[in-house]
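$ run holo --ligand "iron/sulfur cluster" --emit tokens
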Amino acid sequence: MENESKMKDPVLPLGRPTVGSAPGPGTTGNWRTSRPVFIEDQCTKCYQCWMNCPEGTIRVDAKGEYPYVDYVYCKGCGVCVHVCPADALIMEKE
Ligand code: SF4
Ligand code: SF4
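-- output --
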């Protein structure tokens, strides 16, 4: 039963590197060269971006909401843009 309840509300632990980040543990600092930006009109809320972000920095606050990026921790890797099936994410230069 414990495993069943975990599957209903999956919460992944966030990566938090403590060396080389500023101003605090896991934060990206100013070295990111580009960032993902949502185009809400094209988003189908499939949440592939949320599931595949290696940093766990795409958030969905409530069921049915559009996802958004926590730029304090986003590393600008572009995985979310790559997996989005609706072209609802683009990378923009910082
Ligand atoms: S993967 Fe694309 S379409 Fe799916 S929720 Fe993310 S931005 Fe929206
Ligand atoms: S660019 Fe990388 S770290 Fe940033 S939200 Fe997309 S997948 Fe996550």
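-- notes --
Strands lie at 34-38, 58-59, 68-69, 89-93.
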